[in-house]
Prior knowledge:
Distance between the termini: 158 Å
Shape: elongated
Mean pLDDT: 83
Structural class: alpha/beta
Largest sheet: 8 strands, mixed, barrel
Radius of gyration: 54 Å
Number of helices: 26
Strand content: 15-25%
Low-confidence stretches: 1-18, 265-272
Oligomer: single chain
Helix content: 40-55%
Amino acid sequence: MTKKRRATDMKPASTEWTYGDDGKARILVVDDDPRLLSGLASLLRSKGYEVTEAEGGRMACRILETESFDLAMLDLRMPDVDGFGVMERLSSEQPECGVIVVSGESSFSAVSRALRRGALDYIRKPFDPEELLATVDGVLGKRSLLRAHEHIRMRLEKSEELHRYIVNSSPDIVFMLDGDGHFCFVNSKIESLLGYQPAELCGRHFRHILDDRDIARGTYALKGPNISADNPRTLEVRLKTRGSRKATRHFEITAFPIDPETWPHTNHDDGKYNGREARYYGTARDVTERKEAEAFINFQAYHDLLTRLPNRALFKDRLDLAITHARRSEQKLAVMFLDLDRFKVINDTLGHAMGDRLLQAVTQRLERCLRKGDTLSRFGGDEFTLLLPSIHGYEDARQISKKLIKALRAPFQLGEHEVFVGVSIGIATYPEAGESMDQLIQNADIAMYHVKARGKDGYRFYSESMSIDTANRLSLERDLRMALERDELRVFYQPQVCSSSNRVVGLEALVRWQHPERGLLYPRDFLPLAEETKLIAKLSECVLDQACHDVGQWIREGHSDLRLAVNLSPVQVEHPRFVETLMAQLQAHGFPPQNLEIEITENVIMNDLEQISQKLRELASLGVRIAIDDFGTGYSSLNYIHRLPIHTLKVDQSFVKAIRRGEDGACIVNAIVAMAHGLKLQIVAEGVETDEQLTYLKSLGCHQVQGFFYGPARPADVIGKTLGHTPARAVAF
């Protein structure tokens, strides 16, 4: 069945088909007639095709095993293997190869059978050369178009697959919304980030996954004006996770509107997704880690990382706001400055790790005493500040102060150590003690220092007179530092006399300050300041050096039993290297340890009984004597007296004075002396001024006395002249 074509319809054979490596279409020609086979092959070669000849069907099948072709032109009637057999072989091994039948067989059944087997055209012999070439060109053109279409289809499929891969592999959630905000599409990333299946969200409004706090802001964002492709809506919101698998997470949303006129439609529902027309598309990027990092950086900027309390900057910010509010509402507020007592000793003794644990434990106790709205801050080191907004008056601040002091009185357990700390609290109220932030903090600090000067572990409200004292204090502090450099400190000695023989058996070293302008100053005038300014250790070291020099010389001159008594500050005793430092000083002066008696108060011992006990035992083993000063005014615990290597009890002068007045204090003296006898301890009574007191003490069996009865403390040159003599009354001393 041959279709006649006019010459004007004929197109010359083209060489643009680029199936072979050389750019030429490859054609297999099969015929059992050598003459026809050669003629057809020559015709095709003349038009630029690459032709392979196969004489008969059997040869064609062998060639197909090793070569591939774009087109096969074959006769139907051939011995051994006919054209249908070759077509069957092509169908199974090279299905992409087109087939044109060139045959003398013209029966309808033969033509129909060939076309059913996949032949693309049928040319009857004898053929017209131009018609045959036009047919070949047409068939190859169609095959090229089909291949190009298939190639494009495959590229589209790959592009869609790549698009799906990119969308589903995106680190962000990719979504589409309809005009009302319902999900049209969401990628699979939402499952790993929030726990939702994409299918369960499609058709639901996006507020379903918004955190309740962000619903209003999130839904308004899409309705806001000026949203466009060039100006997308960007906002940060919190999205809920499904169930309670994870916490709410932070996301940065970027949403673009979709222009219906420019959006590329497909054949599937005219651009609709899940039956809904997309009007917005966008991404949701998980920024939880960034937000957490920002929050941590912000926390670091305004909080103390050890205690988690607000730091100085945040405290001042809140105080500034509280002052503004108090001024508008005509209310009062209070600022407290808290300084821990004995913290430095614990920190130096047990180490900074234990010190940090103590600060955390102190913070927990302090926070339990506060009202809602109060601000406790760590100002630095062992200093805290407390803001009490909206108080009615002094009594509110007083009650809080008492609660804070009481809360810290109970011991703290740090590992195997039980330690005690106190707190000194200065209070400044608005507006009486200042109307600005800096004034209130400074005045609370001044009030706190006055608590320290009066013995610590208490509270005081700021008053204007404190500023005057503070000015004097600053001047005195400067002079005291200069006094240590200029050697203005003097050591005076007060004799300790045996009550039965009237012999001087010991000398208590007492410091005096020869101030260039104020004259001779006594310990009460400058020792509290020395403790506050941490100068007490250096001052005590100077006193001990001078006393070891003076008394050591008298011992070497023949007074071998003469005892030197020195009063040591808590800072010295509580220092980790106290024993080592003390013994080094004695060795430097060649002073015999058995002639030294150190005096410490009961409070020093009870602050840290375990550590102090160990130090005292070590000193006692080296020959140093231990005396308890001001006995009866502190804990007065028989338990610690029995456990520690104590040699002497010094009866406080307040009890001795009571003897003269016939008060109950005399009974306390009786009890102390009796207890000392029972424990085989020495007794030294301080502040003896009258015959009556001396007689009474002798009757009790008090071993030694000191006081104005035998004279005040005097310089070394005066004391040196009296040694070896029996001291007379004060006027004759």
